Automatic annotation (TrEMBL):
<dbReference type="InterPro" id="IPR013108">
    <property type="entry name" value="Amidohydro_3"/>
</dbReference>
<dbReference type="Pfam" id="PF07969">
    <property type="entry name" value="Amidohydro_3"/>
</dbReference>
<protein>
    <submittedName>
        <fullName>Amidohydrolase 3</fullName>
    </submittedName>
</protein>
<keyword id="KW-0378">Hydrolase</keyword>
<dbReference type="InterPro" id="IPR011059">
    <property type="entry name" value="Metal-dep_hydrolase_composite"/>
</dbReference>
<dbReference type="GO" id="GO:0016810">
    <property type="term" value="F:hydrolase activity, acting on carbon-nitrogen (but not peptide) bonds"/>
</dbReference>
<dbReference type="InterPro" id="IPR032466">
    <property type="entry name" value="Metal_Hydrolase"/>
</dbReference>
<feature type="domain" description="Amidohydrolase 3">
    <location>
        <begin position="53"/>
        <end position="538"/>
    </location>
</feature>
<dbReference type="InterPro" id="IPR033932">
    <property type="entry name" value="YtcJ-like"/>
</dbReference>
<keyword id="KW-0614">Plasmid</keyword>
Amino acid sequence: MAIGIEAELILTNGRIWRGREEGVSEALAVWQGKVLATGSSADISNLKGPRTEVIDLEGRFATPGLIDNHLHLIATGMAMGWVDASPAAAPTLAALMKQVSDRAATTQKGGWIRARGYDQVKLDTGRHPTRDDLDRAAPDHPVLLTRACGHVSIANTRALELAGITETTAVPEGGVIGLTNGCLNGFLAENAQNLVRAAMPPAATEELIDGIERAGKHLLSSGITSCMDAAVGQVSGFAEIQAYEMAKLSGRLPVRVWLTLLGDPGVSIVEDCWRAGLLSGAGDDMLRVGGVKVFLDGSAGGRTAWMTKPYQGEPDNIGVQMLPDAEVEAVVKACHDRGYQMVCHAIGDGAIEQLITAYEKALAANPDPDRRHRIEHCGFPAPEQNARMKAAGILPAPQMAFIHDFGDSYISVLGEERGLPSYPIGTWMRMGLKPSTGSDSPVCSPDPFPNLHAMITRETGKGTVMQASERLSREEALQAYTEFGAYSQKAEAVKGRLVPGQWADIAVFDNDLLAAPAETILSDTRCLLTLLAGRVVHDAR
């Protein structure tokens, strides 16, 4: 117990889960934004002085602030103003088109309409919407409707015209332009989406800052105090770095952010960041440069994740390989040699194979036993690939919300044998691979409760059990969401547990996540209180 120090804040009379090794305590004291001590309410009361603020938790359950290991903060904030095309908001094609039509009625003629969140497997039609569907809903506006995964979009005629896309347009490498009977149907996958995005007016810096602030406050309301922005530069290039710095300086950065730099050839911001001295680790605990992101494939539900065996019912489709091996290996080695941690997107076993090989070669040429290169998503690894990850110190960074949102889609496109064991977080935990978790928002909602429920039960939103042997215990699930999220960012010394010296980032819930029935975690849990560095930043008591 610290002698002679008066706590600034005491949380008392609660069930405070400090970490998987540390367990639960009743009370916690904060000094200078960090955890000063934990223990019984009686013990911690000894640190109370005349100026100490005391919060009575009234028996409620608290954890370290949750860490979303992979989302798109700016994109999430901006998409909060778009048409909500999610299955909850638009369960049928007609409902989805009405949403687009209603937005067109309130949008200046010729203005862009953006929509996001549909999943064709969950629509009543069981198919992707088409250019014709969108033309009927909004004939006078360019429309881009993006699938939940972000790897597939549908453009209407006005959008295709503004982008200069015709039936004879050359398909970009790592992209798909959809045709039906030789005519454009509006379907654009992977790199082909960039053709339409390039035709849109660029986002102003103030819009980017608004997105950061809006999404960050939304995360705090769920108990998430830290996140990774998974592709800084994807919306507005290097200007996003400036927006983050301006948000921080003006007090409009609500959460801790680990910046992942977009490194894809042709759109990379890595060279600009390198020249500005923005290397992995640059910054402070609120805003720090993380790693470099390169996309190697697409999404499984969109049938664009690169697999070694074809998708069900499509014997010629193994997904999309975004880049040739030599190019991936060259980019990974160049960034590795400059000291960057790599956090590359690979979902299918084909892409995972390509990425592990590139990491292994870079590490063999320039060893670093603690670089912690990550595989983002890492959905469908083979057992021997898991073993190679362990040997090379490579971390899987899955988003277990995918099991809840897309598990049934995986079964429909891959079959049960390949779909059920996807995202094998139980295997990774047993192997000591320190898996983290997140949402990939706006792909999935950043709401942590479907994520926790999926880790504990392996159930999809429909109730399908996706290989029960991959379930985690409650403590393991919370560890993935806190300590291992910090570990994946090389930040385990400063956050992720509630122990003396770490930041007092704390989430308080109205449901005991260690003891409550699993179904109530999903249906009946709210975050009541969030603290960042010992300050209350969200209060719904």
